[in-house]
């Protein structure tokens, strides 16, 4: 099985000050990183956790 090439993208709502990138094309995890400091690493969360976070953020 070959590793998935992550498809990094930013939100259409992302401003210039607070930017994150998300790669959600891997079926077992969603990767998140800081656009301005990509070398500082990434955070991986389960897809169900990411969906819950996005739904919560939409309420704000």
Write up what this structure looks like:
By secondary structure, this protein is of the alpha+beta class. The chain has one helix at about 45-60, and strands at about 10, 20-25, 30-35, 45. About 0% of the residues are buried.
Task: Describe the SSE topology.
Elements: E1 9-10, E2 20-23, E3 30-34, E4 43-45, H1 47-58
Antiparallel strand pairs: 1-2, 2-3, 3-4
| Overall body shape | globular
- The radius of gyration computed from the alpha-carbon positions, rounded to a whole number of angstroms, is 12 Å
Q: Which spans of ≥5 residues are poorly predicted at pLDDT below 50?
A: none
Number of helices: 1
Give a quick account of the main beta sheet: strands, pairing sense, barrel closure: 4 strands, antiparallel
Q: Approximately what portion of the residues adopt beta-strand conformation?
A: 15-25%
Mean pLDDT: 86
Secondary-structure-based class equals alpha+beta
For the biggest β-sheet, the strand order reads 1-2-3-4
Distance between the termini: 40 Å
Percent helix: 10-25%
Number of strands: 4
Order of helices and strands: EEEEH
């Amino acid at each position: 099985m070959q590793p998935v090439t992550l498809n990094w993208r930013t939100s259409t709502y992302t401003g210039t000050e607070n930017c994150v990138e998300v790669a959600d094309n891997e079926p077992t995890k969603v990767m998140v990183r800081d656009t301005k400091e990509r070398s500082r690493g990434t955070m991986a969360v389960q897809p169900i956790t990411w969906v819950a976070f996005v739904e919560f953020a939409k309420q704000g």
